[in-house]
Amino acid sequence: TDTLQVGELAKKLNKDTSEIIKKLMGLGIMATINQELDKEAIELIAADYDVEVEEEIIVDETEFENYEVVDDEKDMQVRPPVVTIMGHVDHGKTTLLDAIRNTKVTAGEAGGITQHIGAYQITNNGKQITFLDTPGHAAFTTMRARGAQVTDITILVVAADDGVMPQTVEAINHAKAAEVPIIVAVNKMDKEAANPDRVMQELTEHGLVSEAWGGDTIFVNVSAIKGDGIDDLLEMINLVSEVEELKANPNRTAAGTVIEAQLDKGRGSVATLLVQSGTLNVGDPIVVGHTYGRVRAMVNDLGRRVKSVGPSTPVEITGLNDVPQAGDPFMVFADEKKARQVGESRFKKQQDAQRKESSKLNLDDLFNQI
Ligand code: GTP
Ligand code: MG
């Protein structure tokens, strides 16, 4: 819409309608209050008041919400799988992640690893795998609650000496709800009390039947502490990701999801993003949840500065005007002006919502205390 009624224009300029009508007459345009004015007439009047006309771009929220734009099949290329690790407390999730990272990331990386971000990539037999280091549940609950799906494959860690526990079942339910394939890592195989058959038995009750027992769930026996079975596990991840045919179009503006974000004293807002499609570049105008800006600098999982990253890559960025939330979608705009407009509109909406929410929260708190 690039026309305005005389009355609307008067309102925008904060003038009387009669004054505008007079001015129009002076320009040879006979007008009534409801008359539609074209862009040229609007600009003439505005110029007369020394006002610059800025076209109002209607912010298409649906464009942002459905950032997973449908790409042409011919533009799709194989991308690395994004893997999260879930399981019951103390079953060895962190140790397993460390074992994977230590066996794979340090090799050939001078200075070893300084893990800066809550996600990392390894290369196994020439194929990359991205691991999200956020606790698996958080990756599922917060992100899924916000409509974001970041995980392609779940590794379900079950301690061989402890068996299926409440959070094991919870993890299975999360993965099933998200329709994410599960690979079972039966951990702590080095322990005297390890009983992998019992784990298999217990998991059948939750619909996970081992291939060895005629089912279709992959089980891998590992010892995170000794590093046993890690290579097998990585092989299985590669296998499953091939079956899943994970693809993305790297040749478009980037879109993806916030993994984590915080305020850094020196650098300002720092956000770890997972690029899910397209390629993200330094300098890109970007909207991230209710925040926006230009990508000032990007740092990869090894703490190195990078200029551009493709699909399934986690990267830490600076340059946003505020701190976004985990699970927020992000989207790059080809046009900086549009990014700013969308960003400002979302920022404002968020602040209004927050104001409402905080007054509501106070009431809720009050009720909870009673
Ligand atoms: P939370 O983050 O608290 O849920 O625990 P987690 O699942 O990350 O377990 P974590 O890796 O912290 O391991 C828990 C304990 O189990 C630690 O004492 C580990 O050293 C031990 N552990 C982990 N993996 C193995 C293993 O393969 N063998 C043995 N013997 N111990 C292990
Ligand atoms: Mg842990």
TrEMBL record:
According to the lineage, what is the superkingdom? Answer: Bacteria
Protein location: Cytoplasm
Q: Where on this chain does GTP bind?
A: 87-94, 133-137, 187-190
Query: Which parts of the sequence are annotated with region: G-domain?
Result: 81-229
Using the record's annotation, list all stretches that form the Tr-type G domain. Answer: 78-247
Function recorded in the entry: One of the essential components for the initiation of protein synthesis. Protects formylmethionyl-tRNA from spontaneous hydrolysis and promotes its binding to the 30S ribosomal subunits. Also involved in the hydrolysis of GTP during the formation of the 70S ribosomal complex.
Write out the similarity annotation.
Answer: Belongs to the TRAFAC class translation factor GTPase superfamily. Classic translation factor GTPase family. IF-2 subfamily.
Protein's name in the database: Translation initiation factor IF-2
Gene from which the chain derives? infB
Residue numbers of the full-length protein present here: 188 to 557 of 764
